[in-house]
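[#protein-structures] MJ: dropping Release factor glutamine methyltransferase here for a structure pass
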Amino acid sequence: MNETDVARAMHSARQRMELVGIPDPARDASALFLAVAEDAVGSGDTMPPDIADAYERAIRRRLRREPVSHITGRRAFWMHDFIVNADVLDPRPDTETLIEAALQTKFTNVLDLGTGSGCILLSLLYEQTEAAGLGTDISDDALKVAAQNAAMVGVADRVTFLNSDWLASVEGTFDLIVSNPPYIAASEMADLSPEVLHEPHLALTPGGDGLDAYRIIARDASAHLTSGGRLLVETGATQADDVSALFHKAGLTNVAVKCDLNGKDRVVSAEKPGNGQ
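AK: finished. C-alpha cells for Release factor glutamine methyltransferase:
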C-alpha cells in the first residue's frame, strides 16, 4: 500500500476541524499526529498505512468534539503527563494555582477529596518527598486511573486510594486537605463547550448553585484536620466569597483567596485553629 503524505494529511485534518468550529485546529492536528506517530519509523514526509489509519481515526474522534486528551490518553499538568480518560476530569492549568499554594508550607500527610486522576495529590507527593497521601473518590473507575498515575509518577508506595463520598469514609487527621470539587452551577452547564461535556458529569457539577461540595467540606473538614492544619479548595471564578463565608461559618481561620495567572479568584485557603486560638 502507498504511504500517505504527512503535510497533506495534516492540512486536510486542519480544514475539516476548522469547518466544525474546533478552536486552534492546527495545534490539534499536530498533537494528534505526534501521538499516533510517536514510535513510527519513516522518512518524516510520509506515514505508513497503519499510522495513516490511526491518524484518521483520531481525527474523526476529534471531529466529534472528543477532547484531544481523551484521544491521546494524556494531559500535561505540573511536572507530568497524566493518564486521563472519560472517567476523570481533565487537569487544567488553573488548578496548578492550588499546587503552588499548597506547597508554600511543608506537610507530612495530605488528603485529596474527589481525587479523580490524582493529578493534585500525586503532584504534591512528588514535590514533598517525605509526605504520604490519601485520595478519595466515589468513582471506582476514577480511582483505577489515579492508581495508574501514582505508579507513573513514582509515588505509589506513599499513597492510598479510598472510595468515599467526600469525608464519609475517611478516618484519621491530616495536616493538609485539598480538593477541586465539582462547582459548575446547573444553570451554567448549557454554556460549556462540547469537549467539556465529554468529561464525567459528577466531576463537573453537583447541580443547583454549584456550592454543595463546599458546604460538605466546610462542615466536615475540621474533624479531619490536625491543629493548625490547612484546607485548600479550588473554586469557580465567582465563588470565592461564598466559599470563604462557608469556611468562616465553620470556624476556620486565616481564610484567604488566591488568584490564578489570569487574575481570577481560584483558590480559597483556611486553617483549623491551633492551640490558644
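MJ: nice. Residues 87 and 200 are 6 Å apart (CA to CA).
AK: one more thing. The radius of gyration is 21 Å.
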